[in-house]
Amino acid sequence: MSWNRFTLASADSASLSSRVAAVSRIDGSMEVWWVAPDGSVQGAYWYEGSPWRRYELAPAGSASANGGIAAVSRVPGSMEVFFTGGNGSVQDRFWYEGSSWQGFELAPAGSASTTGGIAAVSRIPGSMEVWYVGGNGSVQDHFWYEGSTWQRFELSPAGSASITGSVAAVSRIPGSMELWFVGGNGSVQDRFWYEGSTWQGFELAPAGSASVTTGLAAVSRVPGSMEVWFTGGDASVQDHFWYDTSSKNFDQDVTTDIAIGGSVHVVMRQDGFFSFSTHAHDSGFDNIDYTISAAVLTPDGHVFTFQHSGHTEGTVAGLPFGTPDRNDDFTFVGNNPEITARWDGILNGTFKASLDATDTLAAGVTGALGDLVKAVLAAAGKAAADAVVKLVS
Questions:
Q1: What CA–CA distances, in Å, run from 237 to 102, 187, 211, 240?
Q2: Of 296, 323, 321, 291, whose CA–CA distance to 307 is shortest?
Q3: Across-strand partners of 255?
Q4: What are phi and psi of 372, to 5 degrees?
Q5: What pLDDT, in 10s, does the model give residues 241-292?
Q6: How far apart are CA 15 and CA 208, in angstroms?
Q7: pLDDT tens-place string over residues 324-363
Q8: CA–CA gap between residue 19 and residue 14 (Å, rounded)
Q9: Contact 192, 176 (CB under 8 A)
Q10: Does pTM top 0.85 for this prediction?
């Protein structure tokens, strides 16, 4: 089947310098936003089975016609849009299912370059992070964690970035974020963060590699890979890609026969580092206690285990007013020399994860690690483990 096309908004609907942001918050929906010539922010949305519909997110004069715009959907029932105001402010508009769009000023007038880019990611459902080019060529970082207010720091000092350049970011695993921006000298700069460490950085492409007015785009198609594209100073299109050959990622969605489900993400590195991240979501009426277990079995019979017990709230927790805390996210990082010693086996390891849960009106959580170890051994055709290494318990 070939690509098809249509005009979403008629001629003169968008600023010729406008960037575009889009998200797909659920499988059957897409939403896109852009800046119009009058500085308004326009939106359009599509739901499967219906035509595209348009609306105005922010009125004329709200946005810089040459500024950045970015969007994230951190949970299926929410979207958030960030854009540069005409006065160099950074504006935030957010939507939660069942409510109308609302907004506030994330950064005051003069904070952002009115010709620079904005990027945003949600590395876990309970967090968002936003970056933009400051009016002085710095790179600013704003971050939010559920239950706290937005906070801010300077990621890169004045003069680091082109004030007409773009910013791109990905979160390839829950415990990491990576950011790219165009330097004032046409270089491409990389800044990266791993949970438990501070931000670090390096020069991805030297001075003169990129147009100082270029766009940047980045994706992480699998947890162990990232790819970045930009316009070169000679009007070429450049591609930089990275594959992780020193770490192994394991992922699995976990379900139960009651109203709770989630996911597990394990990263193990050759230097002994590991991270164990879990997400649980309560979609029912009752509060639920749960235990998530995970195991990695090497071909020679070594089992590395991970376990976390937590609690989610159902609709009952919000009665008669209030909002239940339906999500529970957990991340643990550590280091163990057995990972290094068994690295070749881990690269070829068998992974299984399970979720055991019961609503808090019934008896306690049952099942868990012992049964999971038996299951992973059975899947590999082994009668018993040679050794069990408990990394998180």
A1: 38, 14, 10, 10
A2: 291
A3: 261
A4: -65, -40
A5: 998 878 898 999 999 888 999 999 999 998 899 999 999 999 998 899 999 9
A6: 28
A7: 888 999 999 999 999 999 998 999 899 999 998 876 555 4
A8: 9
A9: yes
A10: no
What residue has token string 């976990």? 254
Q: Are 53 and 85 in contact (CB under 8 A)?
A: no
Question: At 379, is the secondary structure helix, strand, or coil?
Answer: helix
Q: Which string of DSSP letters, residue by residue, matches 339-368? A: HHHTHHHHHT-EEEEEEEEEETTSS-----
Name the residue among 291, 358, 354, 293 with its Cα closest to residue 328: 291
- Lookup: tokens for 103: 């907004």
For 385, residues 6+ apart whose C-beta sits below 8 A from its C-beta are 297, 301, 302, 303, 373, 377
Q: Is 233 strand, coil or helix?
A: coil
> What is the distance between the terminal CA atoms of the chain, rounded to a whole angstrom?
50
| Phi, psi values for residue 148, rounded to 5° | -125, 170
CA angle 287, 326, 142 (to 5 degrees): 150
- Please say whether the beta carbons of 62 and 92 come within 8 A: no
Residue 365, CA atoms < 13 Å, CB-side half-sphere: 19
Please provide the DSSP assignment of 268-282 as one string.
Answer: EETTSEEEEEEEEEE
Phi, psi angles (nearest 5°) of residue 273: -65, 145
Q: Structure tokens of 354?
A: 């399970």
Cβ atoms of 102 and 153 within 8 Å: the answer is: no
d(CA 392, CA 309): 11
Contact 62, 85 (CB under 8 A): yes
Tokens of 275: 């991270």
